[in-house]
Design a protein that fits this description.
This protein has about 210 residues and is of the alpha+beta class. It has one domain. It is built from four helices and nine strands, in the order E-H-E-E-H-E-E-H-E-E-H-E-E. Strand 6 and strand 7 form a beta hairpin. The N and C termini lie far apart (about 40 Å).
Amino acid sequence: MKNCNQAINSREYKLILNINQFYDRTHTVERFGNLVKSLTQQFKGKVISQQTEEKYRQIYYLDTPNFDLRHHGFILRIRREKKYHQPKYQITLKHRESDRYLSASQDLSATKPGKTKFEEDIIPPFQSKFSQSISVTKDRQPNFENIKQVAKLFPGLKALDIPEQTSIELVNNFRAFEVVKKLANLQFGDKHIVKTDLSFWYLNTTDNLPLIA
């Protein structure tokens, strides 16, 4: 069995915001950034650097028609973004659990080089979710037709005993256009640098009001 005592190498505090505040994204993000700066100073922290960078990418999820991956705690996500003016596709397999050790024990190996992460997501009211993930980046859009093809990249999925020819499809026929706005890097005492950013999901690139923020 895989070592369950993995060290957490990423911790994120996540809040769902009122989307009606972000109809004018540029103006509201500026106000939000000022609020973060004010609260940081109030708690004796300091702003190391402020940022204005925005990232744009498309996100969608894949699963079987009966959501077999989700029922086993797995998420298969595709992110499309441009790097050096060329499209790149990040294929991420993630296992999420409330139990840290159960999540850490999962086999998330890949047959291609990838970036691994073991993170803790903290959501109100301070509830922790633990997830282990691996991300593989490719130049071409993945075209998974069945679970066998997914397991060829992520062989640990074979242990789920999902029939090999079970089809893979777009979850809920939904694709989101994401805008990630970096705000600032903060520091409290001599502790690690804290990165802050905002993420917005839109149904279309021309929408003013996000689906989620």
